[in-house]
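Researcher: Structure for this, please.
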Amino acid sequence: MSRLFIKYPLLILLICFFTNCNQEENSYNKDALHKIEVLQGLIQKAQNKSLDVTREETTLWFAKEFLKFANWDETNRDAVEKLFGYYQKYEEDKVKLANELPDFERKKVIEILDVAIKNLKDLIDDNITRRAAQKIDWQNIEVEDNTLTNNGRPVFLHDYFSKTVGAPLTDNNVYNDHLGAIYHTGSHLYEVNQDRPSNPYMLNEDGTFDEKLLSYITEVPDTNIGFLLFWNMGVPDWMKKKEPEIGKGRSLFTGFDIDNPLVRDVWSKVIKKTGEVTKDKKVTQLGYILSNEPHWFSEKGHWTYNFLEMNSISSYTLNKFRVWLSKKYDDEINTLNKNWQSNFKDFDGIDIEIPMDKAKRGTPIWYDWCRYNMDRGTEWFTFLQNELRSVNPDADTHIKIMAKLFVDDYRSHGVDYEALTELTSMIGDDAKITGGRNYRSQKPEKWEENYAFYWNELAHSYDFQESVSPQKIHINSEGHFLSTSGWRELDTPVDYVRSSFWLATLHGMDVSLSWFWARDPDGSPEDRLEGELNFFDPALAGSYAGSVNMQPHVVNEVSQVMYDLNSFSEEILALRDQRRPLRLFHSETSAINKKYHMTEHSELYESLYFEGLTLGFATEKIIQKQDHSNWDVIAIYKTEYVTDSEFLALQSYLDQGGTIIIDSTNSLSKNEYGQIREERLTSGNGNLIYPKESNLNAFKELTLSSVTNNISNIKIKENNSSGHKSCTWRISEDPKGKGYIMTIINLGKTTADLKISCNDSRELRVVNMLNGSELESSFKLESKGVLLINITKGI
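Model: Predicted structure, token format:
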């Protein structure tokens, strides 16, 4: 060998390098296989002691699957490299990442096995205690008014959206207890409209239905709970030829003009047929999703313009707008002309430029268009729901609405979050939590100053939806906690995974379908991700790189946190389904008119978020329709623009004895057109309170002092190195009658020092309910840490 080295030194070094690499790779696989044997032995030992091992069985399944996936990735590095290259963040390092991926996956398999082995050893040795997992009977879930039940117990469901396209629903490698087993009709598999049911392609020009597309719906096994999505992406050629304007006013995922009469006629036939053939089927127990991510952004410079969204509007939309304006202005064209600074002769002659210059924000023409755009969106979904229920009266519905449409400042999108939440029988959304900065961002994002991840969008929007419709099942039909188009990490921390799902469930989420599962059982990516990728959807092509399909520790942790949530489902419901004593007043009128209205209100929401309260919202409709005893106080903050009817609702609330805290006389001072309102709120039979100082902190303290109910007098004091509160917590009476239960999530970037105390100075016994260990009243909680504790008071 030494003589060979002298003669061929480079060759020998290369041989040694690759030999060592293979040995190292083999050692990871060998180590993982050994740990699988160890875990299997412990599972058998635990079963002999009648201990529940459901959690470890799931880890074992994921370990075996990802070892198989790693082998595929190793054998097909060119394909993996290509898939990494489709995501801009990873494009430059695609060769390196493709080479590293197989061993990365094997190392993560070893990590999850190590955790499972330790936990099971501790359980066997009585070092910890834990509740048995609630195994889900996917074929016998009951849908109640406000919760799902599994063999009589509340349950939270999780699965993956857009799941292994092409795999049959009966494939146990894809639909099982580990990944989830929620069925669908195939209608959400959308890369080619013609091949998907529940859209206009189902209907032939002669009025007959395409039997192949219909079979995608009718042949779904009637066994498992599921959902059906009406896919709004496009229309067949025969409709385009028959109606030249059909594409005007289209949007990214609504590929036609919703005001077009032919569209209405065809959709009526399609939705009725779908409703008839799926009536009382289990595949629709989780509802008919009326649309995928609807929006109609209609302002210049918005990113959606490049995807042909609202580049113009049809004559149908314009004429409906004219009718809407005629009603709004009581047929007084002179009043409109004064508002718009225009000179139209009559309402039939009104014209408008769409997309609109965003410099017009805050003007009457901007308000009228944005308000109308929302009203027409609501009218479209009312039409779809009415057509469905004309043949299927008991059909549950929801809409996959992006939560950011509520919390962002943009308001030209045509989506009335409150109206659509109120319209459907289930709450629907497409909400995200992100574990890091958007890779496109040129500077740190604001949330990074104090928090470990971006939580505000989901918490803020969910508390609003739950305030609007407190007695509805809540379904996140495309959950983006694990990846988004702008954020994902190939080594996502498992504590982030746990805290994000825990937080969302605490805020009302009953069902989530994570984006996305794209591995075929042999380890290869699903059919859509093979060959040349050319999707209209700007995000889909790059979705595989860095996804959960490459992260065994992430998918395993999702399943583990769902086991824990479901083991304590009664306690979680007690914590989340509480009275919301403090209501923040929300006005779409101000949101439409003001440039940063939602930013200001997010700051208020955040300032109150860490005080142990279940926050709520009030609107004109909530005040008019809901029992005022559901809250103690309504807080009005930086809300200059309100309609007369909003103002009158607030005054009526005061007249009936309500309490309002308002930040200044500037709030409520203008109508929707910016005209000064002469009237001011008066106390009536209630309390109208202004803060002595005009700053956010003074307003916050005043609102908190007006909350009267406190069931336990138990509080948390938090200290951390940032000096900024970051632990959100809730407390409730234990539904099993053992004192109180509390959950705490540390959203901060640093470890928090926490002290639990009682106002009456009694000693407290604190027990970690997840593992049975006893805690002191003072303890530490790491960043992204989650606790569920039982608290009992001493004598």
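Researcher: Any notable elements?
Model: Residues 9-48 form the longest helix (40 residues). Residues 1-23, 187-195 have pLDDT under 50 and may be disordered.
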